[in-house]
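Honest question from a wet-lab person: if I give you the sequences of every part of a complex, can you actually get the arrangement of the whole thing, not just the pieces? Trying it with mine:
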Amino acid sequence: EPEVTQTPSHQVTQMGQEVILRCVPISNHLYFYWYRQILGQKVEFLVSFYNNEISEKSEIFDDQFSVERPDGSNFTLKIRSTKLEDSAMYFCASNPGQGAASGRHNEQFFGPGTRLTVL
Amino acid sequence: RKEVEQDPGPFNVPEGATVAFNCTYSNSASQSFFWYRQDCRKEPKLLMSVYSSGNEDGRFTAQLNRASQYISLLIRDSKLSDSATYLCVVNMRANAGKSTFGDGTTLTVKP
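Yes, you can. This is the full assembly:
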């Protein structure tokens, strides 16, 4: 069964450094998302992406964050200058959109996550 | 008020027990509803979508009451492998859109 994949599984960085987290969504899916989960807390929405542009973003997704789909398969999240509070698990997700079977088009499938540790 | 509120838990039940999780959501315009399970330090995995007519998948039954803004998940004949955190998820759109997660309810099934 197709899966969302993410790399790296764990990223350790120094405060102020830039990081790029990578995701390969399921191939025929149209909508892509980034979520984060701080340890012990709930999953929080960051951004959604459709048709090569951001369709929605949360207040967490400030100017330090950006997303890109540089080719037909990868979907990246860049954090320009990491802060200690950016330490979290970052999940990429995708969903098929309207082309999927009835009732299934809004089901989001998550990748295994990248654990980001900012020191 | 939280957008999605779940039973705080944790739930500790013996194998074979029936357990029910409850969830309420604050925005009456919400369009789509899901239950996910999350194992420790893993990604959320879709368990089932929740439809107004109610739906069942093996030992799992989900119900939605739009008038009360209430979602439930019933697990019958619980197994050790059902031990996980169960996440109630609500989406404002019927097609794509951000998912809003509850805090989760942790279930431990004991032998």
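Two things worth pointing out. Chain B is about 0% helix and 55% strand. The mean pLDDT of chain B is 94.
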